[in-house]
């Protein structure tokens, strides 16, 4: 039997007190007042940030305000492996993940299916132990759906276009496509205006669904988006389905810290079929 995974960044990236955590998420969702004409039943997935909630939670809430209206209750959460080791795409094999809001089951059958279908992936519990990019998404889902969902955590060490293609092709070949949550922050530790300029170029490339343009933009402009492989995976799936991607919200750490000399960028993006 697979061991359960305790929280790694509770009390650091988000509150460890359940009531406080619920209140924080409730407030963030209540502040989303942007009207979008996206049918939640045609939602393929979302891009969300994974910094501390005080910095990026409000932007993430723009994505989860769409997710909450979808009837899908099976999720794949894809993030970067910030240590870059192991290089393979690491899929958590089963058990439950724990946060202050409760326990959430990993779909072991789906995890096995993805591993079998996605070249370059493996079942690996150890790679996830200290990685936060998947964990910080769970309280949002737990707040919205309590225990009425299952998910598969995936982190990518090697995020090259080939690896994103392998993972997207694996997901597309499944009997039932889960809703994809791609976890990534954008530009890291650059002056505010530089970060905004670089992130705008990258977000334009995301909305174009052109993977070659996306990777070329990353490389030529030295853009330090940490979960670019997760974004590329969602882009690839969306393109295969004939869908679109639309930026819902963009922010930086400046809005919280007031420091403009070194900021991190965050985005919420919806992938959907018209």
Describe this structure in words.
It is a single chain. The chain is an alpha/beta fold and 274 residues long. It has one domain (39-272): Protocatechuate 4,5-dioxygenase, Chain B, CATH 3.40.830.10. Helices cover 37% and strands 22% of the residues. The protein has nine helices and eleven strands. It has helices spanning 18-30, 53-67, 108-117, 138-145, 161-172, 192-208, 211-220, 228-240, 254-257; strands at 43-48, 74-80, 89-91, 96-99, 102-105, 121-123, 150-156, 179-183, 188-190, 244-252, 263-272. The strands form two sheets. Strands 1, 2, 3, 6, 7, 8, 9, 10 and 11 form a nine-stranded mixed sheet that branches. The model has no long low-confidence stretch (mean pLDDT 97).
Q: What's the helical proportion of residues? A: 25-40%
Which regions have little confidence, pLDDT < 50, spanning 5+ residues? none
Shape, principal axes of CA atoms = globular
SSE order: HEHEEEEHEHEHEEHHHEHE
Write the CATH fold name: Protocatechuate 4,5-dioxygenase, Chain B
Strand content: 15-25%
The Cα radius of gyration reads: 17 Å
Q: What's the CATH class, please? A: Alpha Beta
User: Helical stretch count?
Assistant: 9
Average pLDDT taken over every residue: 97
By helix and strand content, what is the structural category?
A: alpha/beta
CATH homologous superfamily label: LigB-like
| Count of DSSP strands | 11
Number of domains: 1
Summarize, please.
By secondary structure, the protein is of the alpha/beta class. The chain has helices at residues 18-30, 53-67, 108-117, 138-145, 161-172, 192-208, 211-220, 228-240, 254-257, and strands at residues 43-48, 74-80, 89-91, 96-99, 102-105, 121-123, 150-156, 179-183, 188-190, 244-252, 263-272. It has nine helices and eleven strands.
């Amino acid at each position: 039997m697979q061991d359960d995974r305790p929280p790694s960044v509770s009390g650091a990236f988000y509150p460890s007190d359940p009531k406080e955590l619920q209140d924080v998420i409730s407030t963030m969702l209540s502040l989303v007042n942007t009207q979008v004409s996206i049918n939640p039943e045609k939602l393929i997935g979302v891009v969300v940030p994974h910094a501390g909630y005080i910095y990026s939670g409000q932007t993430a809430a723009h994505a989860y305000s769409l997710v909450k209206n979808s009837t899908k209750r099976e999720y794949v959460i894809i993030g970067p492996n910030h240590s870059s080791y192991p290089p393979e795409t690491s899929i958590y094999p089963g058990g439950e993940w724990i946060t202050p809001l409760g326990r959430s089951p990993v779909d072991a059958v789906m995890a096995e299916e993805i591993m079998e279908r996605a070249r370059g992936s493996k079942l690996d519990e150890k790679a996830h132990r200290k990685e936060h990019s998947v964990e910080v998404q769970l309280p949002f889902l737990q707040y919205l759906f309590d225990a009425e969902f299952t998910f598969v955590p995936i982190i990518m060490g090697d995020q090259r276009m080939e690896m994103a293609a392998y993972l997207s092709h694996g997901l597309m070949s499944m009997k039932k496509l889960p809703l994809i949550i791609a976890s990534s922050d954008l530009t890291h530790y650059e002056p505010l205006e530089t970060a905004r300029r670089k992130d705008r170029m990258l977000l334009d490339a995301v909305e174009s669904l052109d993977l070659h343009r996306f990777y070329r933009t990353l490389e030529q402009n030295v853009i330090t988006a940490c979960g670019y492989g997760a974004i590329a995976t969602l882009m690839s799936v969306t393109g295969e389905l004939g869908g679109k991607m639309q930026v819902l919200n963009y922010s930086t750490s400046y809005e919280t810290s007031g420091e403009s000399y070194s900021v991190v960028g965050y985005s919420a993006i919806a992938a959907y079929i018209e």
